[in-house]
Design goal:
The chain is 41% helix and 8% strand. With 306 residues, it is of the alpha+beta class. Among the domains are: 116 residues, no CATH class; 72 residues, no CATH class. Strand 4 and strand 5 form a beta hairpin.
Length: 306
């Protein structure tokens, strides 16, 4: 009776997963784990890496030049300066390597009367006028050293490399580096009879080539002398600031190595001036004693540096 009244539903069982077929042996591909490459592979890898490195350096130099060009353009616009007809483009594809030659030169003296009478004579006895000086046949210089100095200033001002083809104590000849490409700029100077003056005898004054941003004659000596006031204000001027200052003012690029040498020479020039000033202190003390007899004068130097 109770079995009839209490009927329970049949117990449900969970479905059993169907058996999976056993994996069959799949053949694996053969892999060559040989770690020893050939010499040819190593050469190709080294060549590829070298090419990538060269491309990166050229790309970085390109972008640096773009930044400097932008700053140069902004400075010219803000200052209201004219770039001038002489700045007719430049390329560093044929630029020569940097050099420290032609540093031992003197200063340009005022030229004598212009024999061809082209108006009022310009007295080029200051640094600014030196940079703007032009040449003419009959122009006289004190000696070959002053003439070489004028060539260097002209080369930097005009943005042309002008090497000396003849350079001795009796004659100096300079020609544009692009003479093989058709530029005929040339100048020749030698002593007059009696050795009274060093005179320009031959001049071809027209350039048919463009400017170049790398000038050999802008040496570290030149930079140190012409930017000595900047080094006085900041003897540890950043190399990038030195490079940008020269680029913005002259349109010429200098390497970091040359900027380092220029900064060292600038510091040395400053120390030399200080030594000269300190050397005058004993004379100053003697003058005080002479004008104030009976007094005592003592000199105290900074850490006995000088």
């Amino acid at each position: 009776m109770w079995n009839h009244l209490l009927q329970f539903p049949p117990k449900q069982t969970e479905p059993q997963p169907e058996p999976q077929p056993e994996p069959q042996n799949v053949p694996q591909p053969e892999i060559d784990y040989d770690s020893e490459g050939t010499d040819e592979d190593d050469d190709e890898l080294a060549t590829a890496r070298s090419k990538i490195s060269d491309d990166m350096r050229r790309e970085n130099a390109y972008f640096e030049e773009l930044v400097m060009l932008k700053k140069l353009a902004e400075s010219k616009v803000e200052g209201g300066l004219n770039l001038g007809d002489d700045f007719d483009g430049y390329s560093d594809l044929d630029s020569p390597s940097e050099s420290e030659d032609e540093d031992d030169v003197g200063y340009l003296v005022a030229p004598q009367h212009h024999k061809r009478g082209r108006g009022k004579q310009k007295q080029n006895n200051t640094e600014t006028e030196e940079r703007e000086a032009t040449f003419y046949v009959g122009q006289q210089f004190e000696n070959p050293k002053t003439f070489r100095k004028a060539i260097i200033e002209y080369s930097i001002d005009k943005g042309r490399n002008i090497p000396f083809s003849k350079n001795d104590s009796t004659r100096v000849c300079a020609e544009c580096e692009h003479k093989d490409k058709g530029c005929k700029w040339r100048i020749w100077a030698s002593w007059e009879r009696g050795r009274r003056s060093f005179t320009v005898k031959t001049l071809v004054s027209e350039h048919t080539c463009g400017r170049t941003p790398i000038i050999k004659k802008m040496t570290s000596h030149w930079i140190a002398e012409h930017y000595q006031n900047l080094f006085k204000v900041n003897p540890y001027m950043r190399l990038q600031d030195i490079q940008e200052t020269i680029w913005l003012e002259n349109g010429i690029r200098v390497s970091k190595d040359k900027a380092v040498r220029a900064r060292k020479r600038g510091q040395a020039l400053i120390v030399g001036e200080y030594k000269e000033q300190y050397a005058l202190l004993p004379r100053y003390a003697a003058e005080i004693l002479r004008s104030n007899p009976g007094n005592t004068v003592k000199l105290k130097l900074d850490a006995n540096v000088f």
